[in-house]
Design brief:
The protein is of the alpha+beta class and 109 residues long. The chain has two helices and seven strands. The protein has a five-stranded antiparallel β-sheet, covered by helices on one side. Strands 6-7 form a two-stranded antiparallel sheet. A hairpin with a 2-residue loop joins strand 2 and strand 3.
Length: 109
């Protein structure tokens, strides 16, 4: 039975966006919404996870959980889905720190 899916992407290759738009509608840049079967959903996710590269992707679809949905993620991301007593919460990680100063401190003259 088909069900609604939401797939959010950031900085993914253009060919992936084209492939996703064959099965879903890109309602705003990087957000794809559609009604597909579980088989198509899984194939779309496998393709997305395989080519996401340096970008990020998140798939949300109905599931028999307390919240009524499940979340899958791929790529480098700051938001990490974390199970908390049966509920999925989003844990934020710190942004990457800037590279250290390679030249070293300045000496007074």
């Amino acid at each position: 039975m088909p069900s609604m899916v939401v797939l959010a992407t950031t900085a993914v290759p253009d060919h992936l966006r084209g492939a996703l738009s064959r099965w879903t509608i890109e309602v705003v840049p990087g957000i794809f919404v559609g009604t597909v079967s579980a088989r198509v959903r899984d194939e779309l996710w496998n393709t997305t996870a395989a080519v996401v590269g340096d970008g990020t992707a998140m798939l949300i679809h109905p599931a028999p959980t307390e919240q009524g949905f499940t979340i899958h993620t791929a790529g480098t991301r700051r938001r990490i889905p974390t199970d908390f007593d049966g509920l999925t919460l989003m844990r934020m990680t710190a942004p990457p720190s800037p590279a250290p100063n390679v030249k070293g401190p300045r000496r007074p003259r």
